[in-house]
């Protein structure tokens, strides 16, 4: 996340466009690593074609697209939350392998504990 926040453009390259194709500009994305929610950023555009030439270490093929975040909106939470703690807080299961829509109420609850 620090690299993304430090990026002049706030660009995140995605290996697969499948889950990102329906994202909505202005949405807040929660970032996770090893089933810990570690930060957030606000999307400023929908999925865009990949403009670079690098390949994804995950797929071994060229990245499928780019997601753009407002670089000033990206932050790392001081307190990282486990998926188990957030599931208990929200009363619902979280998925870590794809995009999951949360409500503004869910987001508010998470913000109270980070």
Commentary on this structure:
The chain is an alpha+beta fold. The strands form two sheets. It has a three-stranded antiparallel beta sheet with strand order 2-3-5. A two-stranded antiparallel sheet has the order 1-4. The protein has helices at 2-6, 83-90, 104-113; strands spanning 11-14, 28-33, 36-42, 65-68, 75-82. The mean pLDDT is 88.
List the defining traits of the structure above.
single chain, 114 residues, alpha+beta, 3-stranded antiparallel beta sheet, two-stranded antiparallel ribbon
Quick rundown:
The protein has 114 residues and is of the alpha+beta class. The chain is built from three helices and five strands, in the order αβββββαα.
Topology:
Elements: H1 2-6, E1 11-14, E2 28-33, E3 36-42, E4 65-68, E5 75-82, H2 83-90, H3 104-113
Strand order of the largest sheet: 2-3-5
Question: What's the helix-strand series?
Answer: HEEEEEHH
Using the alpha-carbon principal axes, give the shape: globular
Residue runs with pLDDT of under 50 for 5 or more positions: none
Q: Termini, distance in Å?
A: 16 Å
Most strands sheet? 3 strands, antiparallel
Overall mean pLDDT stands at 88
Oligomer: single chain
What would you call the structural class? alpha+beta
- The gyration radius over C-alpha positions equals 14 Å
Amount of helix:
10-25%
Tell me the total number of β-strands: 5
* Strand coverage percent: 25-35%
| Total of helices | 3
